[in-house]
Amino acid sequence: MSDKNSWSVEIYPVKSHLKIDFKTLWSYKDLLVMFVKRDIVTVYKQTILGPIWFFIQPIMTSFIFMFVFSDIAKISTDGIPNLLFYLNGLIIWNFFSESFIMTSDTFFSNSNIFSKVYFPRLILPLSKLVSGILKFSIQFALFIAVWLYYLFKNDGLLNPNYLIFITPFLIILIGLIGLGFGLIVSSITRKYRDLKFFINFAVQLTMYLTPVIYPVSQITSNNLKLLLKFNPLSHLIEAFKFSFLGKGAFTFNGLMYSFLFTLTVLFIGIFYFNKAEKDFIDTI
């Protein structure tokens, strides 16, 4: 066989656990697309409504929040229409939580694939992130439709501003935080399986420590204010809220803190994931 028609793949030990071989990842882009299609299709396979559930879930949850937190608990939404306020927080939180939870189960849910064939292991968590972005895009379109409805009512409740243009940056940061934490947890749970049962509970609890269902302006407890200050998701959600709704406790210092926090968590996640993938078959 001639050299032009021959090819080979060299598999060699990674010298640095922080190294990402982007060239190799790109060569497996078709595999990533296949995993993304699998994630999207299998979620609503053999359901009557199919992808329509992407729209139904945030709408139904928003109405439940309106009933529980606005009508019963009488929690203010800072003058923002209730549906728009809750939908704003929910689509962002859903994106983070899905990116985190799906990535955190990388080793367990794909152990049968890992043990049979070689491919860059980072492809799978990246596919979860891309799947999350696609789902978020659908729900974001729903949010934009509701937002435009209230905006064109021209009742002065909404005051969007120039920060709308950094929305893609905010979305990327939220996704990368979920990816980073997911990589860390997936690396730990390969040995300590009890942790995966705690994840869903922890995510639900964290939602109440993030301004998803309440505005920061309603917080009077200094301890809770401090928790929100050190919660990177709080700053990103408030920036998103401020850009579209004109309300929210947005600061550039908070945004910079979230950016640096994201980079730190992502680097730690990549380090431990690359370290764990070497011997996970022996420990899983």
Q: How does this structure look, described?
A:
It is a single chain. The chain has one domain. It is built from 13 helices and no strands. The protein starts with 21 loop residues before the first helix and ends with a helix. With 284 residues, it is an all-alpha fold. The radius of gyration is 21 Å and the shape is globular.
Q: What characterizes the major β-sheet?
A: none
How big is the Rg? 21 Å
Shape: globular
Spans of at least 5 consecutive residues with low confidence: none
Question: How many domains, as an integer?
Answer: 1
Query: In which range does the helix fraction lie?
Result: 55-70%
Order of helices and strands: HHHHHHHHHHHHH
* Average pLDDT taken over every residue: 85
Number of helices: 13
Quaternary class: single chain
Q: Would you report the number of β strands?
A: 0
- % residues in beta strands: under 5%
The helix/strand class is mainly alpha
Distance from N terminus to C terminus (CA atoms, Å) equals: 41 Å
List keywords for this structure.
single chain; 284 residues; mainly alpha; 13 helices; globular
Secondary-structure map:
Blueprint: H1 22-27, H2 29-43, H3 53-72, H4 82-104, H5 106-109, H6 111-114, H7 123-152, H8 167-189, H9 194-207, H10 222-230, H11 232-245, H12 252-276, H13 280-283
Helix pairs in contact: 2-7, 3-4, 4-7, 4-8, 4-9, 4-11, 7-8, 8-11, 8-12, 11-12
